[in-house]
Amino acid sequence: MKDIDAHPDLTLDLVVMGAHLSEAFGETVNQIELDGFKISAKLDCLDPEDSDLGMSRTIGVAIEQLTNVLSELRPDILLLIADRYEMLAPASVALALRIPIAHIEGGDISEGAIDDAVRNALTKMSHLHFTPTELAKRRVLAMGEESWRVVRSGAPSLDHLVRGLLPSRKELEKNLGQQLENPYCIVAYHPVTLHSDTTAEVFALLEALRSWKNQIVFCFPNADVGSSVLVEHTRDFCKERDDCRLYTNLDHLTYWSLLSHATLIVGNSSSGIMEAASVLLPVVDIGERQRG
Fold it and tell me: Which InterPro entries match (predicted)?
């Protein structure tokens, strides 16, 4: 976004919505503003109910609000990233308003989550595609997209990792408000949205973590069905041990610094597939969320 904002021939209109505005999920809109971005619209569309009905209502409210915003902004192109279910709302509105869509990180596979279906839907709704790998590019082409529309760009988040100045260990500990031990483990686990019980695996995970006798840093789950259950049980786990803490929100540079100093990461987050590999961090992938 900084490159777009700095380009003399481009104008960036940034729409911030959903969990970014939620106090429960850390109000990350504040970090966006601290990074110097001007926000064109803020859409409070995240339904408070932690259920599939809540997810559906979130999409519906977002569509209604985005219809007003995008019809007024009328951008030349709408840029969407990845596979969050909320992205179905701006894609649907843009399709109806005949606004071209560019999609980042299509062509990946994560068979254990609805993200996979969302990602593929966004691919078919989009006009330009920027894939993270050559294999992802071939998958997008196999879906019938014209070759001139598909570019293997790599993952922009990793560009940010390379360009950014990561906090030192001392700065990291100051940001976290605690001293880090050696070794320490990061846990990044999210609800498995294709399971009827989206949190079934977490009980086995927490039980297994009892055998890890060193420090544990837990990251807050995504705003998916079952997230409140995960948070509740993680907080209960942390109450039992002085060397465990759950963080609601970590900015990108702090999180990557946390990865770079860790001993391993455990869970089912895509950061265990992408970012962890970039800092040579061992990963224990749990369950089916990242299958494929």
Answer: UDP-GlcNAc_Epase (IPR020004), UDP_GlcNAc_Epimerase_2_dom (IPR003331), WecB-like (IPR029767)
- Look at residue 196 in the predicted model and tell me its pLDDT: 75
CATH of the domain at 144: 3.40.50.2000
Residue 7 lies in a domain: yes
In whole angstroms, what is the distance from residue 245 CA to residue 187 CA? 10
Domain of residue 103, residue span: 2-154
What tens digit of pLDDT does each residue of 136-170 get? Answer: 999 999 999 999 999 999 998 888 788 889 999 99
